[in-house]
């Protein structure tokens, strides 16, 4: 639909940060990449699709923030020194930070689709998508939902062992 | 009828321990493997290690069983035996190549987990250890649901000292409470590093919010122990050898052994309590 295309229409490049393995530094890299790109003068957004273990809000010190709605959908939380990096994470939708998101695949898929199409990202040079470990629902749904857009590619993170 | 099938298959399992963490890469599989090795050191005990991490099965490599295949018999799938008294099952054994990605949505993963429980002929088992992927999703809901056919002694939750890990682990603790899964306790891995040359201790992952100790205090959960970083651990895992056997003098080995003992005591005690009630 037009509304769906509109929210990502202003995003020039979409980058996925992936790893099969957990705990190798995906969220850390996503955060540092976003900050570095911002420092280089780019307009940056981060989409955190790790629904069970969302780490990005804490890394950017906005773990207590909430999201608001506007006409075109959800307004991302603006983070960073100049509050210019747009961030969306399930972390912002939890009533309490320690609440477990105990969802099966279909419910996760529905939220990921919403995150992709219902967030008013505006004009961005880069949208960095941080993912959970594995090759399952979140990954399949994210790639499927992003297929119509400018998917630049994936950065894969590992450790030496 | 399905529940009855599972109950029948799991009837001969005395103790079941789930190894969980909200966070990835904290050492669940490492710990599961060492727990299995530690318990199987007693040759009179029969130990089973079930790996339900479908996307990232680490257990075959850690147990030195890469390349092994699962055989079928009249009585079901045969686990792969590391020792006579230590059998292992993992999706890793079902892949044609170790680099094959298992790109499955939830329902298909659940199906395989059910098969692992229903079709594997474990035989008489004293300890069934279940290694899980990170998170609180399909695999976790399913294993708790399917294992309700038997009795789960409890969960061991693994973390590392930093807040980014603890915040996911608190969610896991809440998950356990939500599904009424008893928590045996928490293990803090990568807890400090002692340099083998100068013997100085460094906090590679500083516990900026008090580490597992503070979290356990706050959430009234038992801290089973802290295990320091030892590069030999990663090496042993990569080579499929038991770290406990390769580095018996390491402070990490001592920590692991203490933790394993505490888990054993917990299981035995609960068994006695249950028998009393019955």
Number of H- or I-type helical stretches of chain B: 10
Main β-sheet description of chain B:
8 strands, mixed
- CATH class assignment of chain B: Alpha Beta
What is the spatial order of strands in the main beta sheet of chain B? 5-6-2-7-1-8-9-12
Mean pLDDT of chain A: 91
Strands of chain B, count: 12
CATH architectural name of chain B: 3-Layer(aba) Sandwich
Name given to the CATH homologous superfamily of chain A: P-loop containing nucleotide triphosphate hydrolases
User: For the terminal residues of chain B, how far apart are their CA atoms?
Assistant: 26 Å
GO molecular function (chain A): 4 iron, 4 sulfur cluster binding; ATP binding; ATP-dependent FeS chaperone activity; metal ion binding
Protein name (chain A): NUBP2 factor
InterPro entries (chain A): Mrp-like_CS, Mrp/NBP35_ATP-bd, P-loop_NTPase, YlxH/NBP35
Keywords (chain A): 4Fe-4S, ATP-binding, Iron, Iron-sulfur, Metal-binding, Nucleotide-binding
Annotation keywords:
heterodimer; A: alpha/beta; Rossmann fold; 5 helices; 8 strands; B: 278 residues; alpha/beta; eight-stranded mixed beta sheet; 10 helices; globular
In short:
The complex is a heterodimer of chains A (161) and B (278). Chain A has helices at residues 2-9, 26-39, 56-59, 105-117, 137-146, and strands at residues 11-18, 44-48, 68-70, 73-75, 77-79, 85-89, 124-130, 151-156. Chain A has 161 residues and is of the alpha/beta class.
């Amino acid at each position: 639909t037009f509304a769906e295309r509109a929210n990502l229409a202003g995003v020039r490049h979409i980058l996925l940060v992936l790893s099969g393995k957990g705990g190798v530094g995906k969220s850390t890299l996503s955060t540092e990449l976003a900050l570095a790109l911002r420092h280089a003068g780019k307009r940056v957004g981060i989409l955190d699709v790790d629904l069970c273990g969302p780490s990005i809000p804490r890394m950017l010190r906005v773990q207590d923030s909430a999201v608001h709605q506007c006409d075109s959908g959800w307004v991302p939380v603006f983070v960073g020194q100049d509050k210019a990096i747009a961030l969306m994470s399930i972390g912002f939708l939890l009533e309490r930070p320690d609440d477990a998101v105990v969802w099966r695949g279909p419910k996760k898929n529905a939220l990921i689709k919403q995150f992709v199409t219902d967030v008013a990202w505006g004009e961005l040079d880069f949208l960095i998508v941080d993912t959970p470990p594995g090759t399952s629902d979140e990954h399949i749904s994210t790639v499927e939902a992003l297929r119509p857009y400018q998917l630049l590619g994936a950065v894969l993170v590992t450790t030496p062992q | 009828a399905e529940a009855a099938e599972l109950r029948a298959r799991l009837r001969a399992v005395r103790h079941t321990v789930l190894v969980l963490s909200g966070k990835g890469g904290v050492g669940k599989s490492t710990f599961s493997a060492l727990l299995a090795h530690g318990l199987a050191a007693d040759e009179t005990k029969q130990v089973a290690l079930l790996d339900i991490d479908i996307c990232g099965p680490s257990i075959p490599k850690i147990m030195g069983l890469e390349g092994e295949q699962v055989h079928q018999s009249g009585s079901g799938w045969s686990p792969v035996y590391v020792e006579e008294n230590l059998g292992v099952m993992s999706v890793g054994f079902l892949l044609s190549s170790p680099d094959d990605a298992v790109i499955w949505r939830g329902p298909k993963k659940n199906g395989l987990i059910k098969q692992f429980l229903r079709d594997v002929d474990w035989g008489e088992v004293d300890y069934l250890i279940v290694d899980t992927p990170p998170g609180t999703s399909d695999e976790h809901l399913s294993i708790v649901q399917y294992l309700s056919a038997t009795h789960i002694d409890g969960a061991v939750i693994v973390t590392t000292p930093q807040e980014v890990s603890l915040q996911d682990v608190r969610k896991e603790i809440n998950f356990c409470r939500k599904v009424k899964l008893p928590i045996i306790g928490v293990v803090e891995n990568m807890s400090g590093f002692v340099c083998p040359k100068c013997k100085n201790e460094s906090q590679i992952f500083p516990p900026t919010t008090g580490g597992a100790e503070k979290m356990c205090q706050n959430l009234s959960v038992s801290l089973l122990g802290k295990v320091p970083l030892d590069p030999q651990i990663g090496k042993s895992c990569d080579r499929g050898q038991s770290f406990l056997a390769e580095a018996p003098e390491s402070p990490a080995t001592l920590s692991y052994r203490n933790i394993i003992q505490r888990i054993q005591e917990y299981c035995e005690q609960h068994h006695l309590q249950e028998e009393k009630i019955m």
